[in-house]
Amino acid sequence: MKKYSAFSLLKNALSYHENWQKVWRSPTPKKEYDVIVVGGGGHGLATAYYLAKVHGITNIAVIEKGYLGGGNTARNTTIIRSNYLWDEAAQLYDLSLKLWEGLSQELNYNVMFSQRGVLNLGHNLQDMRDIERRVNANRLNGIDGEVVSPQRIKEIAPLINISRDSRYPILGASWQPRGGTARHDAVAWGYARGADALGVDLIQQTEVTGIRRKDGAVVGVETSNGFIGARKVACVTAGNSGVVAAMAGLRLPVESRPLQALVSEPVKPCLDTVVMSNAVHGYISQSDKGDLVIGAGVDSYNGYGQRGSFHVVEHTIQAICELFPAFSRVRMNRQWGGVVDTCPDACPIISKTSVQGLYFNCGWGTGGFKATPGSGYVFADTVANDRPHPLAAAFNLDRFNSGALIDEHGAAGVAH
Amino acid sequence: MLLIHCPHCREHREEEEFSYGGEAHIVRPLEPEALSDEEWGDYLFFRTNSRGIHHEMWYHAVGCRRYFNATRNTVTYEILETYKTGTQPTITGASA
Ligand SMILES: Cc1cc2nc3c(=O)[nH]c(=O)nc-3n(C[C@H](O)[C@H](O)[C@H](O)COP(=O)(O)OP(=O)(O)OC[C@H]3O[C@@H](n4cnc5c(N)ncnc54)[C@H](O)[C@@H]3O)c2cc1C
Ligand SMILES: [Zn+2]
Q1: CATH number of the domain bearing residue B63
Q2: Residue of chain A nearest B74, judged by CA positions
Q3: Among A114, A170, A355, B85, which one is least packed by beta carbons within 10 Å?
Q4: ipTM for the assembly
């Protein structure tokens, strides 16, 4: 792998940028791998990268039915924060945030991680009680956070409407300065490039259609391009996890729902932080290109169609215009949907299964982009050692039978 | 926006009048205390989450305020039939 630097930029400028090396190879699959990662989204690619980098397992293939990072990774609104309520979740998301802080250097790839801070607004007394409780819990876990007043919110985001006369007045917020956004595609591409350089085969346009087992253990996967053997199979297929689990005769406590987002035409810089509101339900930031990036709520019904209903988008825009009256004049440019894997407790599943050598990392639902590095890190460790990483242990599939759920609905951001 | 036929009102109405009730035909165990943790967890949380034909409950919240079932394709979102609670679907995964 050739290193990217100011020097390489200059050098390639001399040949009109026509001689850059390919970012990754497009290999033909081998007969057998030590580990097959199913799903080439950010989480799958991060898993492969850390398996190779930290655990020295390099005989790996990532099998992706479409193109790398084309699933929810490409469709999300890129909000990153770690201010979750419970110890288990807070520690997992904060591990991720710490990895984000060094990721561009680690991967030698600019993931455009921008710690512009995240505001979670409160609009009623109960919101404010929950916010105070969450911020205190965060601080006990060593996570930065502050409860801020409407005046302070106005200083942070001057266009916001803090009038007491609005329908749902803003009473305060939690503020996590270390939170922010990153370039979604770059994260997938950076991990892909890093994994490829360590010898990982990235196989695109190949769908896994079956999971072959023998005596209760995994032996490989059937794909649209034939059988590929594997000692371990790690599934990281987000919204399609239920479909993949069914290939091994398993069911998951996951339901796949549409989640929509939209962006406006590019406008001049006017919002240099992330603003989220659970109560009126909308979240917004401005990309470096200038478009306002707006996330909607999850549709109520199961859906694999990567689109949802219009009234959900309409509702979100009402909330955004209430928070930022000036944005009512901005025209929307594009709108799309992803398929999110929602879990009953709004927490992920990072787990072994009853099939030997078969692992699942899913259930991130509406909020897994922020967890991409940490998720890959602990999942790689879980797969390599065939036991849960200490930070993954609580996110075992068994919790839905033991009852040890981790209820993060309050901090999850998107109601579902 | 889905247009949903309520079998009670016998009319197509807009999705906003309804709320979603999740997977249909999951029978509440008669003796919950006799179940193992495994079985109780399965009943509470584990779902088929099918990609394609899906039987699901809907509630006509601002209409007749009654539950009914729908057979819907979760990829195309096409509603193939709606039928009253307690009756069986005519379209199933096997027949579609
Ligand atoms: C509109 C929207 C907004 C969001 N906003 C945020 C946000 O602001 N902050 C945040 O933290 N999170 C957010 N999320 C959630 C976040 O996008 C996801 O949790 C995260 O990206 C999941 O990453 P992943 O790699 O697991 O999944 P994906 O990127 O979806 O990757 C899964 C991959 O598996 C592949 N696959 C599936 N089945 C098969 C098969 N049978 N064979 C081979 N490959 C298969 C798919 O093609 C896909 O590429 C949002 C999601 C959406 C949809
Ligand atoms: Zn009705």
Answers
A1: 3.30.2270.10
A2: A303
A3: B85
A4: 0.95
Among the candidates A293, A317, A342, a domain finishes at A342
Q: How many CB atoms lie within 10 A of CB B94?
A: 6
Edge-to-edge strands of the sheet including A146-148?
Answer: A146-148, A172-176, A118-122, A274-277, A282-286, A291-298, A255-266, A332-342
Mean pLDDT in residue range B55-79: 98
Q: Which domain holds residue A356?
A: 6-78+184-253+345-412
The count of domains in chain A is 2
Closest CA to A261 of A386, A366, A162: A366
Q: Which helix (H) or strand (E) holds A266?
A: strand A255-266
Confidence at B96, pLDDT banded by 50, 70, 90? very low
Cβ neighbours, 10 Å, residue A306: 17
Kindly give the residue spans of alpha helices, DSSP state H, lying in A222-371. 241-247, 310-323
What lies within 8 Å, CB to CB, of B48 at 6+ separation is A242, A246, A251, B23, B54
SS3 A207: coil
Distance CA B56, CA B71 (A): 7
Enumerate chain B positions whose Cβ falls within 8 A of a Cβ in A: 1-2, 15-16, 19-20, 22, 37-38, 40-42, 44-51, 54, 56, 72, 74-77
- Best probe of the A interface among B42, B49, B51, by most A CBs < 10 A, is B49
In this structure, which amino acid lies at residue A210? G
**Mean pLDDT per 10-residue run, chain A (416 residues)?**
92 95 96 98 98 98 98 97 97 98 98 98 96 97 98 98 94 98 98 98 98 97 98 98 97 97 97 96 96 96 96 96 96 96 97 98 97 98 98 98 94 67
One domain, residues A266 and A153: yes
* Token output for A138: 């965060």
Q: How far is B42 from chain A (nearest CA, A)?
A: 7
CB of A79 closer than 8 Å to CB of A413: yes
Distance CA(A97)–CA(A144), nearest Å, equals: 11
Domains in chain B: how many in total?
1
